[in-house]
Amino acid sequence: MDLKLFIRDVPDFPKPGIIFKDLTPLLRDPAAFAEAMEHLAAHYRGSRIKAVAGVESRGFIVGTALALDLGVGFIPLRKPGKLPYKTIRQEYSLEYGTDAIEIHQDAITRGDRILLVDDLLATGGTARAGADLIKKLGGELVGIAFLIELAFLKGREKLAGEQVFSLLTF
Questions:
Q1: Whole-angstrom distance, CA of residue 68 vs CA of residue 76
Q2: pLDDT at 60 (0 to 100)
Q3: Which residues have a catalytic role annotated?
Q4: CATH number for the segment(s) 48-169
Q5: Mean pLDDT across 135-156
Q6: Are 159 and 129 in contact (CB under 8 A)?
């Protein structure tokens, strides 16, 4: 199955000049979504992963499905102020300004093998922040997985030294 056929281009979203890669058609099709998850899971089977960490919000969709497929737990990485317990925070740069993500401070036990997942790799800032949070808590980052990579934005450069796997590259 050609999974790229399930990725819709949305021009001028979220602002003029941007062509947004919309994965909702893939999520809507059970066969396509299942195949995408199976390809991601196959890449990490046997990696002794303890949990999948997913970045808000579409990373939750991909991450929870992948965690279930791999038979492991799920750890949410969220925007500031959204998690109910004690957190640690990692800021990252945006085109104009900064943003941050947080994780519960007890989400990872030192030495836990963690796979970080998000829907899309663009500039790499959010994924870098997620990877840094996992490492701050003593987790062993097994890899960073994406459904989609926009290679022309060179996000892999921010993730240098990490094991990055993208299912679809544009």
A1: 14
A2: 98
A3: 58, 95
A4: 3.40.50.2020
A5: 97
A6: no
